[in-house]
Design brief:
Length: 298
């Protein structure tokens, strides 16, 4: 089994590349100024954003290869494992990296916002491909952070560094929104497959066997991370994936209630509810009527 090198501190990664550590909790790296690196697997104890300018060895996230080319941003959160495969030949990467430790964010508003930047949990093939103009914005943010950590650390340093990291992350959110739009044809294809999968689930015995459909189930079927899939559905439909699934389940519930040959309890079990009273409560909450009242009204 291949050894995974644990990089807990920013200095651990800097030392690997022969880079001076100017700040214990944050680092901006220009790979053209680093020593050649070898292949290996690394487990980060910090956040890392890589701007890859050329392909210099295949990067794997878990079992998947990153879909990257010139001008690609890839994101790692603490605890994630990155694997570089380059046939054992040392190479000099080209591009830039921003590393920042979770401790840098403690007692800041950004710490509470990090979960909203869902692209840190996207899969390898969901990398962010940026334009020349977007690349310039990224580099400007990195330069501001670098300028700040190269100065003597004072009481304003951390606040200014964190502010610029947050600015960069907000720009990345905008760039991902743009990517969802520019890849609209691909996204529509994914949504069409999702619709087919959801209908197959709802109109089969899977409801009784597995219960109500979960977002993770469809994400896995479509070979996407749950976060990327959820963000895509939200961008395209205006509803979260879970809301969309719930809406379809409610529409099916209304259809089944019109079947007078079945009792409400039978319908509840068919819809994947373990207890009929849970179905009745949910139905009334959504429609304002109990299932029996809705049946009689229609």
């Amino acid at each position: 089994m291949e050894k995974i090198e644990q990089l807990n501190k920013i200095s651990d990664y800097n030392d690997l590349l022969g880079v001076e550590t100017l700040h214990p909790l944050v680092s901006v790296i220009d790979f053209s100024k680093c020593k050649p690196v070898n292949h290996g697997s690394f487990n980060f104890g910090f956040y890392a954003i890589f701007l890859k300018d050329v392909k210099c060895g295949d990067i794997k996230y878990g079992k998947e290869y990153y879909d990257y080319q010139e001008g690609t941003l890839v994101f790692f959160a603490p605890g994630q494992i990155m694997k570089i495969e380059n046939n054992g030949i040392k190479v000099i990467p080209k591009g830039f990296a921003l590393l920042f430790h979770p401790d840098l964010l403690s007692r800041t508003s950004l710490a509470k916002e990090m979960n909203n930047f869902s692209f840190f949990s996207y899969e390898a093939h969901e990398a962010l491909h940026i334009s020349t103009r977007e690349r310039k914005v990224v580099l400007e943010c990195l330069k501001k952070i670098e300028d700040e950590i190269e100065q003597r650390i004072d009481k304003h340093s951390s606040k200014l560094v964190v502010s610029n990291i947050e600015l960069l992350l907000n720009y990345c959110t905008r760039f991902y929104d743009r990517q969802f739009i520019t890849r609209d044809t691909i996204n529509r294809g994914i949504l069409e497959k999702f619709e087919i999968l959801l209908n197959n689930y709802l109109y089969s015995d899977l409801l009784q066997k597995k219960g109500h459909p979960k977002v993770n189930y469809f994400a896995e079927e479509l070979h996407l991370s749950a976060n990327y899939f959820g963000d895509l559905v939200k961008k395209e439909t205006g509803k979260s994936a879970q809301e969309y699934i719930h809406l379809k389940l409610m529409n099916l519930s209304k259809e089944k209630i019109f079947d007078n040959s079945k009792s409400i309890n039978e319908i509840a079990y068919e819809l994947g509810f373990k207890y009929p009273q849970h179905f009745s409560r949910m139905f009334k909450k959504e429609t304002g009527f109990t299932p029996n009242e809705y049946r009689n009204l229609n």
